[in-house]
Amino acid sequence: MAIKDILKAHRTWEDGVGLMLGITIGLSPWFYDEPAVPVVVLNSGLIGLAVLALAQLELIRLRRWEELAQLVCGIYLSASPFIFQYAHQHQLRLWHWALGASVAILALFELWQDWDRRDMRG
Fold this sequence. Notes:
The two termini are 29 Å apart. The protein is elongated, with a radius of gyration of 15 Å. 74% of the residues lie in helices and 0% in strands. The longest helix is centred in the last third of the chain and has 25 residues. By secondary structure, it is mostly helical. It has five helices and no strands. It has one domain.
């Protein structure tokens, strides 16, 4: 089996990583030393739940829209420090940038893997 064939197959570990990222995103405001603003906690919780739900849906049935939605969630999470003006909280900003980038990179990798699949709709 060639390396290309190994990389092009969608694996369940990718969905497991998505599940872990969703949980970590939801808990990320509590990693920060200072108390976070309630809107930041709500934002992190909702994005974490969205990433978690999308990863669970991918375990059931692969659809392209799920991967696109994960990509949007990752980009949105990376932009959240500027949207909600908590970019001055250095550690939380770095957590959200790193987690958002991880979700976006994972989603792009999954999209690349599944791009040629004919059994995927949407």
